[in-house]
Structures are given as structure tokens and as C-alpha cells.
Write a structure and sequence with these properties.
This protein has helices at 29-42, 66-79, 112-119, 135-147, 175-182, 191-195, 198-210, 237-254, and strands spanning 5-7, 10-12, 18-22, 46-48, 83-87, 101-104, 125-128, 153-157, 187-189, 215-219. It contains 8 helices and 10 strands. It has an 8-stranded parallel barrel, surrounded by 5 helices. The longest helix is centred in the last third of the chain and has 18 residues, at 237-254. The structure holds phosphoenolpyruvate (PEP) and manganese (II) ion (MN). Phosphoenolpyruvate is lined by residues 24, 50, 86, 105-107, 128, 158, 193.
Length: 255
């Protein structure tokens, strides 16, 4: 069993199944508060929301940055949910003081100076697998954080690039049992960035639970059609509620 990491009362690992949910990007106070309240009611333990976005194109929405962090913290205060958000530069660390879990995006998995800087903090780190990285490379990146003094690393499988183009990435579900055999760090699955299509999110989430993941991270939006980022893969709060119900049944079956 993976070791448990305590995030202000919410545990990841240690036999728990933890759901992280929220929009790709924090867009407005109304948006993040509304989504936060819905996902909490459906059973999410942690709220996600990007403030600093590592986008492929410099012309795409880059996030609300500092204002996004503030809005996320407002949602944390309003709901009591710990929050997860991505960091793109170690220079921003002072702004992340009240953030509960710092995410390292797939594109930064081998940004070793960033990993070392995060290793010197006492924050849990959600480390996403790079889209072209092996499991051993993912574990070596985790070692950069651990060897600098921070053992609170959560691994995240979010799909890798293959010859298949129908899906945004190919979800490597074998990563879940494989990583569990290689390390005691908790392993969560992000079906949203793997799929890139909203109708694939529910089946991949259920499959992740069946494969023994310690949790999932799902992008949820109250108005996916008008989302500023990743609307095609966002599910609505109603769809989220339904998939959580199904996941809980799978968890009962696999024990
Ligand atoms: C995200 O989780 O918002 C994100 C950008 O994911 P990834 O780094 O896996 O592409
Ligand atoms: Mn996204």
C-alpha cells in the first residue's frame, strides 16, 4: 500500500481514494466558487484550478496568474477544500504560501532546478508524468524533490504521446500497478488530459479506480463550451456527480 500524505486533513494514499476536481483554469470568482461548491458536494476532497498555465502556444490564455491564486484561495476559504495549482517557476514560490498542493505540469517534469526548489519546501507536490517520459524518469524526477528534503510527492499519470491521434494522449493505465510495484508514493490518474474528450473521462476514471489508483484528478467546468482552456475535455458538475457515484461502486468491489 502507498504511504499516506496528509493535506490539511485530506489524505492521499494509505488506502484512501482521493478525488481532485475543478476547472483547467481559474477564470473568475463566480466560476471557481460555483465549481468548488458543486465538486465538494459530490465528494471531491481537493479543488484544482490553474492560475499559471504552461501552455503549448504563447498566444493561448496563460491564466489569471496572481489574481487566479487569490480567487482559488477565496474558494478554499468558502468551501474548506485544500487547493492544488500548478507552478511554472521557482520565482513564484512566495506566492504559493497558502496553496496546499503544488503541481508540476507534464512539461516541467524534468525542470530539475524547479524540482530541487520544491524539494526545499514542506508542501505536498503533485508531479505529473511528462508526455514522453518513462516511469523510471518520473521516479527520478520524484527523487530530485525527495533528495532535497521533501518526501511528500504524489505521482500523476496523465497520458503519454503515442502514434494514436484520436485521443489527446494515450492513458497508460499500466503505470498505476507498475509504479505501485516500484515505489510507495501515491499514484493518481488524470483522465482529462489523457483523453482530451469529455465523453472519455468517465470510463477512464472508472478504469483508473479499477486499476488501483490512489485517486483521480478531473477537469470540471460549469460551462464547458465557453471555458477559456480545455473545454473539450471538461465534464459538467452533473456528469462529475454521476461518475463519482460509479467510482465508489468500483471501489467497493475491489475493496
Ligand atoms: C493541468 O493539469 O492543468 C495541465 C496543464 O496538465 P498537464 O501538465 O498534464 O498537461
Ligand atoms: Mn487542462
Amino acid at each position: 500500500m502507498s504511504k499516506a500524505i496528509d493535506i490539511n486533513g485530506v489524505r492521499i494514499g494509505g488506502g484512501n481514494f482521493t478525488v481532485i476536481a475543478g476547472p483547467c483554469c481559474v477564470e473568475s470568482e463566480e466560476q471557481i466558487l460555483q465549481i468548488a461548491r458543486c465538486v465538494k458536494q459530490s465528494g471531491a476532497g481537493l479543488l484544482r484550478g490553474g492560475a499559471y498555465k504552461g501552455r503549448t502556444s504563447p498566444y493561448d490564455f496563460q491564466g489569471l496568474k496572481e489574481e487566479g491564486l487569490e480567487l482559488l484561495l477565496k474558494a478554499k476559504k468558502a468551501t474548506g477544500m485544500p487547493v492544488v495549482t500548478e507552478i511554472v517557476s521557482a520565482d513564484h514560490l512566495p506566492l504559493f504560501e497558502d496553496i496546499d498542493v503544488i503541481q508540476v505540469g507534464a512539461r516541467n517534469m524534468q525542470n530539475f532546478e524547479l524540482l530541487r526548489a520544491l524539494g526545499r519546501t514542506d508542501k505536498p507536490i503533485l508531479l505529473k508524468r511528462g508526455m514522453a517520459n518513462t516511469l523510471r524518469e518520473l521516479l527520478m524526477s520524484a527523487e530530485y524533490i525527495k533528495s532535497a528534503g521533501n518526501n511528500q510527492v504524489i505521482l500523476c499519470e496523465r497520458g503519454i504521446r503515442t502514434f494514436e491521434t484520436y485521443t489527446r494522449n494515450t492513458l497508460d493505465l499500466s503505470a498505476v500497478p507498475a509504479l505501485k510495484a516500484m515505489t510507495d508514493l501515491p499514484v493518481v490518474v488524470d483522465p482529462s488530459h489523457a483523453a482530451g474528450k469529455e465523453f472519455l473521462v468517465a470510463p477512464l476514471s472508472m478504469a483508473a479506480a479499477a486499476a488501483g489508483a490512489d485517486g483521480i484528478m478531473i477537469e470540471v467546468h460549469n460551462d464547458p463550451e465557453h471555458a477559456l482552456c480545455d473545454g473539450e475535455q471538461a465534464i459538467t458538475p452533473e456528469q462529475f456527480d454521476e461518475v463519482i457515484g460509479k467510482i465508489m461502486k468500483i471501489r467497493e468491489i475491489i475493496g
